[in-house]
Amino acid sequence: MATAIPRKLIEVTYEDYAQQYLRSLPLDHFMEVTAQATQREITLASLALVKARRKDVHVFNELLVQYPRPNQRRPGQIVPDNMVVIFNGKIRASSSFNTPVEDAKPFWVMEYVSKHNKRKDYEASFDKYERELQVPYYLTFYPDDQELTLYRHNGKKYVTVKPNKEGRYAIPELDLEVALLDGWVRYWYKGKLLPLPGDMQRELDEERRKVEELQRRLEEAERELAAYRSTSQQPGRRNGKTSR
Question: Which CATH superfamily is domain 7-194 in?
């Protein structure tokens, strides 16, 4: 009968494997083209708004995922560009997300692929997500070709998600939809487009302008009212007419 390995021992062992993985990475692994960096920024800004509304949503950026493999001592390893985990509790991950010691598994992984800088073997990644980790949702985006694909795991393999009547790809468990807009993957939460920081700043500036205009009109009205009261209270004036 196999003896269960203590959680602490698993954590120490997986941390050692994580450090080995980090040391083995070539320098060009840390280089990404502008398109990849921009899409990552859009994703993180958008999903931060989802996190603010749903405390069970956890978002990670280029975090190493380690998981056990049958008959293998060394864990499987993969680094998605972005990853979402749904869990109403604390995630232990620090330098790596180690599935044997977490209470939840990756729910959605995202990869942004550029033909100018292929840092990963994306065919191998697809196989790991589909067969080994069985991540429920997998998104790939090729900025150069403007190609967006969302996959859903049906329990056996990945199938492509079809666009809805709005032309967006839905992830019902997150109340989220994704689609291309102005050349980038954008996100809709409960049917509404999630704004980016620049959009939010413009909206705030516009609201501030409206408030300032309203304040100006209010002050002008108060001055006119004060002038009217001053005139109407002058001696010898009744009902707006001068007595003779």
Answer: tt1808, chain A (3.90.1570.10)
